[in-house]
Write a structure and sequence with these properties.
With about 180 residues, the protein is of the alpha/beta class. Strands 3-1-2-8 form a four-stranded mixed β-sheet, covered by helices on one side. Strands 4-6-5-7 form a four-stranded mixed β-sheet. It starts with a strand and ends with a helix.
Protein backbone atom coordinates (compact mmCIF):
# COMPACT_ATOMS: atom_id res chain seq x y z
CA UNK A 1 0.00 0.00 0.00
CA UNK A 2 1.53 3.26 -1.03
CA UNK A 3 1.54 6.32 1.14
CA UNK A 4 -0.77 9.20 0.28
CA UNK A 5 0.54 12.59 1.28
CA UNK A 6 -1.81 15.51 1.79
CA UNK A 7 -0.65 19.10 1.63
CA UNK A 8 -2.46 21.11 4.28
CA UNK A 9 -2.25 24.90 4.34
CA UNK A 10 -2.59 26.35 7.83
CA UNK A 11 -3.31 30.03 8.52
CA UNK A 12 -2.30 31.48 11.90
CA UNK A 13 -0.70 34.44 13.64
CA UNK A 14 3.06 34.32 13.91
CA UNK A 15 5.75 36.60 15.30
CA UNK A 16 8.17 37.68 12.59
CA UNK A 17 11.86 38.56 13.05
CA UNK A 18 10.93 42.05 14.28
CA UNK A 19 8.58 40.65 16.97
CA UNK A 20 5.56 41.89 15.04
CA UNK A 21 2.55 39.61 14.82
CA UNK A 22 1.38 38.85 11.31
CA UNK A 23 -0.95 36.34 9.73
CA UNK A 24 0.79 33.66 7.65
CA UNK A 25 -0.39 30.68 5.65
CA UNK A 26 2.10 27.83 5.60
CA UNK A 27 1.93 24.40 3.90
CA UNK A 28 2.55 21.16 5.81
CA UNK A 29 2.46 17.52 4.68
CA UNK A 30 0.65 14.73 6.50
CA UNK A 31 0.45 11.03 5.74
CA UNK A 32 -3.23 10.03 5.81
CA UNK A 33 -5.77 7.70 4.26
CA UNK A 34 -8.40 10.35 3.47
CA UNK A 35 -9.09 14.06 3.51
CA UNK A 36 -10.94 13.64 6.80
CA UNK A 37 -8.00 11.89 8.43
CA UNK A 38 -5.62 14.51 6.99
CA UNK A 39 -7.70 17.27 8.59
CA UNK A 40 -7.77 15.44 11.91
CA UNK A 41 -4.02 14.75 11.84
CA UNK A 42 -3.04 18.33 10.91
CA UNK A 43 -5.27 19.65 13.69
CA UNK A 44 -3.58 17.33 16.16
CA UNK A 45 -0.04 18.11 14.96
CA UNK A 46 -0.51 21.88 14.78
CA UNK A 47 -2.16 22.04 18.22
CA UNK A 48 1.16 20.92 19.66
CA UNK A 49 2.99 23.85 17.98
CA UNK A 50 0.46 26.68 17.89
CA UNK A 51 -1.12 27.83 21.13
CA UNK A 52 -3.47 30.33 19.47
CA UNK A 53 -6.28 29.79 17.01
CA UNK A 54 -5.44 28.50 13.53
CA UNK A 55 -7.43 27.69 10.41
CA UNK A 56 -6.90 24.98 7.81
CA UNK A 57 -7.49 26.74 4.50
CA UNK A 58 -6.71 24.00 1.98
CA UNK A 59 -6.18 20.24 1.89
CA UNK A 60 -5.03 18.62 -1.35
CA UNK A 61 -3.29 15.45 -2.42
CA UNK A 62 0.41 16.13 -2.93
CA UNK A 63 1.97 14.92 -6.17
CA UNK A 64 4.91 13.22 -4.47
CA UNK A 65 6.18 9.70 -5.05
CA UNK A 66 8.56 9.58 -2.08
CA UNK A 67 9.80 11.65 0.84
CA UNK A 68 13.40 11.43 1.99
CA UNK A 69 14.45 13.19 5.20
CA UNK A 70 18.15 13.59 5.92
CA UNK A 71 19.89 14.39 9.19
CA UNK A 72 21.11 17.92 9.95
CA UNK A 73 19.00 19.47 7.19
CA UNK A 74 16.40 22.14 7.71
CA UNK A 75 14.82 22.81 4.30
CA UNK A 76 12.75 20.75 1.88
CA UNK A 77 13.39 20.59 -1.86
CA UNK A 78 11.22 19.14 -4.62
CA UNK A 79 13.25 17.03 -7.05
CA UNK A 80 11.82 16.19 -10.46
CA UNK A 81 13.24 12.89 -11.64
CA UNK A 82 12.79 11.18 -15.02
CA UNK A 83 13.12 7.42 -14.88
CA UNK A 84 14.17 5.80 -18.13
CA UNK A 85 12.86 2.36 -19.06
CA UNK A 86 13.00 0.35 -22.25
CA UNK A 87 9.96 -1.24 -23.84
CA UNK A 88 11.20 -4.60 -25.10
CA UNK A 89 8.31 -5.08 -27.55
CA UNK A 90 8.64 -1.78 -29.38
CA UNK A 91 12.33 -1.23 -28.59
CA UNK A 92 11.60 2.34 -27.58
CA UNK A 93 12.78 4.26 -24.57
CA UNK A 94 10.10 5.50 -22.16
CA UNK A 95 10.39 8.18 -19.54
CA UNK A 96 8.29 8.38 -16.41
CA UNK A 97 8.42 11.51 -14.29
CA UNK A 98 8.12 11.47 -10.52
CA UNK A 99 8.60 14.04 -7.80
CA UNK A 100 10.58 13.46 -4.61
CA UNK A 101 10.61 15.64 -1.52
CA UNK A 102 14.21 15.73 -0.34
CA UNK A 103 15.68 17.42 2.69
CA UNK A 104 18.83 19.50 2.37
CA UNK A 105 20.47 22.76 3.42
CA UNK A 106 20.98 24.05 -0.13
CA UNK A 107 20.34 22.97 -3.73
CA UNK A 108 23.69 21.21 -4.10
CA UNK A 109 23.04 19.15 -0.98
CA UNK A 110 19.49 18.42 -2.20
CA UNK A 111 21.00 17.20 -5.51
CA UNK A 112 23.45 14.96 -3.65
CA UNK A 113 20.67 13.67 -1.36
CA UNK A 114 18.47 12.93 -4.39
CA UNK A 115 21.29 10.83 -5.86
CA UNK A 116 21.68 9.08 -2.50
CA UNK A 117 17.93 8.35 -2.35
CA UNK A 118 18.01 6.92 -5.88
CA UNK A 119 21.26 5.03 -5.34
CA UNK A 120 19.61 1.58 -5.38
CA UNK A 121 17.44 2.30 -8.43
CA UNK A 122 17.85 -0.43 -11.02
CA UNK A 123 17.16 1.75 -14.07
CA UNK A 124 18.62 4.93 -15.41
CA UNK A 125 17.34 8.25 -14.16
CA UNK A 126 17.90 11.94 -14.75
CA UNK A 127 17.33 14.69 -12.21
CA UNK A 128 15.63 17.30 -14.40
CA UNK A 129 14.86 19.98 -11.78
CA UNK A 130 15.30 20.81 -8.11
CA UNK A 131 13.52 23.70 -6.45
CA UNK A 132 13.04 24.77 -2.87
CA UNK A 133 9.68 23.67 -1.54
CA UNK A 134 7.50 25.90 0.63
CA UNK A 135 6.68 22.87 2.84
CA UNK A 136 7.40 23.81 6.45
CA UNK A 137 7.27 20.33 8.00
CA UNK A 138 6.30 16.74 7.25
CA UNK A 139 4.23 14.58 9.59
CA UNK A 140 4.42 10.89 8.66
CA UNK A 141 2.21 8.34 10.36
CA UNK A 142 3.97 5.97 12.74
CA UNK A 143 1.89 3.22 14.29
CA UNK A 144 5.01 1.28 15.20
CA UNK A 145 3.85 -0.64 18.28
CA UNK A 146 3.25 -4.39 17.91
CA UNK A 147 -0.39 -4.15 18.98
CA UNK A 148 -1.10 -1.65 16.21
CA UNK A 149 0.56 -3.88 13.63
CA UNK A 150 -1.47 -6.89 14.78
CA UNK A 151 -4.69 -4.90 14.53
CA UNK A 152 -3.73 -3.70 11.05
CA UNK A 153 -2.97 -7.27 9.92
CA UNK A 154 -6.33 -8.48 11.29
CA UNK A 155 -8.09 -5.60 9.59
CA UNK A 156 -6.39 -6.33 6.25
CA UNK A 157 -7.11 -10.06 6.59
CA UNK A 158 -10.79 -9.35 7.19
CA UNK A 159 -10.89 -6.88 4.32
CA UNK A 160 -9.28 -9.42 1.96
CA UNK A 161 -11.80 -12.14 2.87
CA UNK A 162 -13.34 -13.44 -0.40
CA UNK A 163 -17.01 -12.74 -1.05
CA UNK A 164 -19.21 -15.23 -2.90
CA UNK A 165 -19.89 -14.11 -6.45
CA UNK A 166 -23.58 -14.94 -6.38
CA UNK A 167 -24.48 -12.75 -3.43
CA UNK A 168 -22.98 -9.83 -1.58
CA UNK A 169 -22.57 -10.68 2.09
CA UNK A 170 -21.22 -8.23 4.62
CA UNK A 171 -19.69 -10.60 7.16
CA UNK A 172 -16.96 -8.30 8.40
CA UNK A 173 -17.03 -7.96 12.15
CA UNK A 174 -14.55 -5.92 14.14
CA UNK A 175 -13.66 -6.02 17.77
CA UNK A 176 -14.53 -2.76 19.59
CA UNK A 177 -10.82 -2.15 20.35
CA UNK A 178 -9.93 -2.41 16.64
CA UNK A 179 -12.67 0.03 15.64
CA UNK A 180 -11.63 2.46 18.40
CA UNK A 181 -7.97 2.39 17.33
CA UNK A 182 -8.87 3.45 13.77
CA UNK A 183 -11.17 6.25 14.97
CA UNK A 184 -8.43 8.02 16.93
Amino acid sequence: MSTTWYECKVKYRKLDDNAIQKVVTEPYLVDALSYTEAESRINEEMSAYISEEFKITTISVANLAEIHPFENCDRWFKSKVSLVSYDEESGKERKATMYLLIQGNDIKEAFDNTNTALNNTMGDYTITAISESPIMDVFPYFGGDEEGLEQLERFNALKAKPVKETEMVDDMEFEPETVASFQE
